Amino acid sequence: MTKIYRAKDFKDLSRKAANILSAQVILNGKSVLGLATGSSPIGVYEQLIEWYNKGDVDFSEVTTVNLDEYLGLSPINPQSYHYFMHLHFFGKINIKPENIYLPNGLESDSKRECARYEALIKHLGGIDMQLLGLGRNGHIGFNEPGAAFEADTHIVTLASSTIEANKRFFNSEDDVPKQAYTMGIRTIMQAKRIVVVVTGQEKAEIAEKAFFGPITPEIPASVLQLHNNVTLVGDEAALSFISPALCANYMQ
Ligand code: GLP
After folding, report:
1. How far is the CA of 245 from the centre of ligand 1 (A)?
2. Is the beta carbon of 133 within 6 A of some atom in ligand 1?
């Protein structure tokens, strides 16, 4: 059952989600965190960095595995998710570089890379807490509409709407890679706890469909309704299509 926290705004949402992640790390210093990119989690990372700087949370024994990476981008490419994560989070906390994992966008043998990533997650004992954003078309990671629920880490061709949405980070639409490595739905669903952050009016309709509509591969995030420990943290705009009465039932 999904627990929903309604936040006032982006800052409040970021603080609430960061509270959940920091509690995980405080309770288990050796946690394996599944991390996400996109603009939605940036505030969560900023808040965690602030608490790290105050000495309230320690990442020295934490391990992270990221959801996805563009195919063909090297870690030093400013548009790569490696770069994003170092810029917004890893470079500002005391995580050990050897405890940071993302799919290798430069590995052209996709079978090998996907098998490596899945084996890695298993070797780590699975993901204790997975942070997720929500794509405008309902994707999670890069699992686009139609993705098989039973898929493990795999290579995907991005939906044109995703390329359109993500072109804001690139010089032009042509520069957006057309393919990416992503954890599959099954990989994500095996995480012990999942925290989804959703912000802004443009996500309101898809957030309602994902959490209260039919469970269908056409809306990949709808599968989260089947997970037994999901927390949705949204701001008022993002939750505006979800009736307050329904929310109240889940609020704490
Ligand atoms: C990308 C990422 C997703 C993310 C999505 C939404 O496609 N692969 O993990 O959830 O963007 O991004 P934003 O939070 O910027 O809307």
Report:
1. 28
2. yes
